[in-house]
Amino acid sequence: MNQVRRRCTLSRLIVAIGLCATLHGGLVATALAQDYPSKPVRLIVPFSAGGTTDIMARLLSNGMAAALGQTVIVDNKAGAGGALGTLELARQPADGHTLGMATVSTTATGPATNRKVGYDPLSDFTPIINVAATPNVIAVHPGFPARDYKTFLQVLKSNPGKYSFATAGNASIGHMQMELYKSLSGTFITHIPYRGSGPALNDTVAGQVPIVFDNLPSALPFIKSGQLVAIVIAAPQRLSQLPNVPTFKEVGLEPVNRMAYYGVVGPKGLSKPVVEKVAAAIRKTVEQADVKRRIEETGSQLILNTPAAFEAQIRAELTVYRQVVETQKLTLD
Asked: Pfam families this protein is in (predicted)?
């Protein structure tokens, strides 16, 4: 009987210790969140300046700084199709002072193409919020012998291997979507990877590469100025900014009609109070009329979902592009 009593007492003691530890952990996390941020916050953009991811980050940074009470520094860490900057984020302490922009390229197409990318998009990060989804566009230099989709397709089919296309890098969403497009349209175009959208767009505008597959927000200024000609877009429907440009669905290629997303994540283990504080700062920023207008003017759609919904979205995109890689037998160059 005494042995039974001792076991019961020990069990109650273990439960009590567990409850105390849980309570203490919760109190510590809450206290840290109240003090957060205690220094400037670094927002890693895993691509070069001038691309859509960079544009989104800079639209968010000032408003986040005001809401959080600390400077938010946009830090461009380009390379390997976004993998270098993303890997750096994964190695940071989970205190919320280093965050990162997450895209389809860094959380789906890149890891799907390269299993040795160095991080797991499903376990090495803490999803915070998906800010917006943006259309993608195939655009050409004005000297290209086509200004509409029908002629574009005819030119490519008549000249297999003659033309090349620029993207933000190997395994970027532009690369993967164009490879999917090539497989479905029966065309052959050579891939020219860059270290971000900015350099890819600059060389296409300069005529060094005739075709670019890019996110619309970074490409749109060049399209509006006549430096590039939009051919086809990946969007739910035609855009008011480009009313004469068809969607991939309209030209019979619905599988290519996938939009890109731009969200914010932290290293794995980021506490719930810090996640909520960062998400609230981002929501407050996007509620500002000028920020919302500038995002929507790019053709982007605001998402602003929950961490759980963003995690599910990342998982779904990763599944899709793993299947694309397997079906199309894609590998890094």
From this structure: TctC
Place of tokens 């349209």: 185
Over range 216-239, report the average pLDDT: 95
What whole-number percentage of the chain has pLDDT above 70?
89
Give, in degrees to the nearest 5, the angle at Cα 322 between 317 and 326: 150
Domain membership of residue 215 as a residue range: 136-256
Q: How confident is the model at residue 171 (pLDDT cuts 50, 70, 90)?
A: confident
- Pair type for strands 229-234 and 136-140: antiparallel
Partners of residue 194 on adjacent β-strands:
none
Let me know: does 299 contact 135? Beta carbons within 8 Å.
yes
pLDDT band (50, 70, 90) for residue 115: confident
Residue 8 pLDDT more than 60? no
Instruction: Enter the pTM of the model.
Output: 0.78
The answer to whether residue 333 is domain-embedded is no
Q: What is the CATH number of the domain that holds 205?
A: 3.40.190.10
Cα-based distances in Å from 14 to 28, 139, 241: 21, 65, 64
Predicted pLDDT of residue 1: 53
Do residues 230 and 276 both lie within one domain?
no
Question: Per this entry, what is the length of the chain?
Answer: 333
Q: In terms of C-beta density within 10 A (0-12 exposed, 13-18 middle, 19 or more buried), how is residue 89 classed?
A: buried
Q: Give residue 22's pLDDT.
A: 55
Residues 240 and 266 in one domain: no
What distance in Å separates the CA atoms of residue 179 and residue 84, rounded to the nearest whole number?
A: 23
pLDDT at position 20: 54
Q: Give yes or no for a contact between 182 and 213, defined as CB atoms under 8 angstroms apart.
A: no
Euclidean distance between CA atoms 168 and 214, whole angstroms: 7
